[in-house]
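fyi for ur records
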Amino acid sequence: MSLSGEGPVVAALEGVEVDYPGRGRALGPIDLALRAGETVALVGPSGCGKSTALRLLAGLEAPTRGTVTRAAGRGETSVVFQSPTLAPWLSARANVALPLELAGQGRKAAEATAAEALARVGLGGAEQARPAQLSGGMAMRASLARALVTQPRLLLLDEPFAALDEITRRALADDVLELFAAQRPAVVFVTHNVEEAVYMASRVVVMTPGPGRIAGELAIDAPTPRPAGFRVTPQFRDAAETLSETLRAAMERRP
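which gave:
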């Protein structure tokens, strides 16, 4: 099983395989363990099972074979999808407060905590805005605030920046890393973007074409949040090139 970091294991996939009727094997066998305080990026070609692995960790899907261990308590796991998935009839503050209310917190206290969470992601003053009134970047910030408001032990991000422009993507990447540094959950980040994986992760896991298996890993030993100019450093460029080569080799593999 793949391990890194020094914190306790928060979630794990052990000998996991996923089969879909009429499609055969979609994922596995795969072993992956996630420790508190690490950010793991999953990269690989389309259809390799990255999002399937994320759904298993989120408890949204069960494996065909193998064992999934996850932070299963209410509020222990949070997921941010590519689309913000905000309730359109609720304000930004009410959207962010919803997980706290579902956990039993009173509305007044939940909304106060939600307002603080929105301020942390740069949406102070937009508490009453409905999702339709928010830009794509603002809606994603609200989704991040909602995911983090319960202080989860496991944060799952499924290509959350894919639909955003490059400037907004980079700004949100820095925001996520700052929030991560403050709360230190285990984070799994699914992306197709090699440079984004190097920038975001402490460990990058490369997957083969489906059925996805782990083809290799790359540790990124750099401070979090990333220092200014990190993207133009030799360390960043070398890591991106190494990861690109590992991914290229993985895509040539056959099950």
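The chain is about 35% helix and 25% strand. thats all i got for now
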